[in-house]
Amino acid sequence: MEFVLSGVAACGACVFTNPLEVVKTRMQLQGELKSRGSYQVYYRNVFHAFYTIGKVEGLVGLQKGLVPGLWYQFFMNGVRLGSYAIIESSGYIHTNGRVSAVKTTVAGAVAGVVGAVMGSPIYLVKTHLQSQSTSSIAVGHQYKHQGMTHALVAIYRQHGILGLWRGSSAAVPRVSVGSATQLSTFSSAKELVFPANSWLVGLSAGMISSVVVVLAMTPFDVVSTRLYNQPVDPLGKGQLYKGFTDCFSKTLKKEGMIGLYKGLGASYFRLGPHTILSLFFWDELRKLYQQFR
After folding, report:
1. How far apart are CA 280 and CA 204, in angstroms?
2. Distance, CA of 30 to CA of 63 (rounded, Å)
3. How many CA atoms lie within 13 A of 120 on its CB side?
4. For residue 178, what are the domain limits?
5. What CATH number does residue 91 fall under?
């Protein structure tokens, strides 16, 4: 039940934040491996990107990748938050009755690795679909998928089962860092704010966690997006990057530290509300379940 509640909570947050995920993905791919001023800027900032996509592609464009996004949230966060909830319920994260920062970090990272591996194929497809756009505002490599199922089948036929896990080398550090940061700060913050039974506990702790998560996770998120979306040769090997370290170093060399924090505003507007909403829904659903079980 912990896995189901966690997945449902994450899906609830995804419905509201998916448009910002589309914006974030496009901004992270814009000017890929190009120095500043040497490429056309279609998306000046998060608000301009939101307006541009809405104007050119309509509301449908802002919800691209919603179906795989929901499946990804259900499986990845269902496994991640569900695993953490079980670890938390077992008493592992506490030392002498208080939350241990080290133990919550380790538990969050482990839960994140499991979730990242499970959800990687769907995240791959989600990234492809969210980057797809009309030629007038296209950034990054453009795949021609017709939907989630078509994409999964096409990738499997071309590159086999391993092709579906392409980019997971970036997904694991991305989610493990994000998960460790998110869950450790969330658990610690819950001890510091408001009465224990107030609904404001989960909401406020989620707000605190969201800021820390975005700052820690954005460079890994940029690398992950680019590895998932890069073109590949007939053997399934990336044509731009060999792996996580290569992508990280090339981005830093060509675009500087700013390149690793591309789409930071969009990342917060997406990851911030998603962190707050998913952790809040998760906390409240678990309380309801405990009351009625």
Report:
1. 9
2. 19
3. 25
4. 1-292
5. 1.50.40.10
On the question of pLDDT at 74 being above 60, the answer is yes
Cα-atom radius of gyration of the chain, to the nearest Å? 19
Contacts of 197 (CB under 8 A, 6+ apart): none
Which tokens belong to 158? 């071309």
pLDDT tens digits for 249-292? 999 999 999 999 998 988 888 777 777 777 778 778 888 888 88
Q: What are the backbone angles phi and psi of residue 94, rounded to the nearest 5°?
A: -105, 145
Q: What is the pLDDT of residues 12-47, one digit of tens each?
A: 888 888 999 999 999 999 999 999 889 999 999 999
Among the listed residues 54, 255, 71, 53, the one whose alpha carbon sits nearest the alpha carbon of residue 137: 53
Residue type, 31: G
Tell me the whole-structure pTM to 2 decimals: 0.83
Count the domains in the chain: 1
Phi, psi (degrees; rounded to nearest 5) at 140: 70, 180
- Please tell me the distance from the alpha carbon of residue 263 to that of residue 267, in angstroms, as a whole number: 6
- Count other C-beta atoms under 10 Å from residue 40's C-beta: 9
- Structure tokens of 133? 């756009």
Q: How far apart are CA 174 and CA 223, in angstroms?
A: 9
pLDDT on residue 211: 84
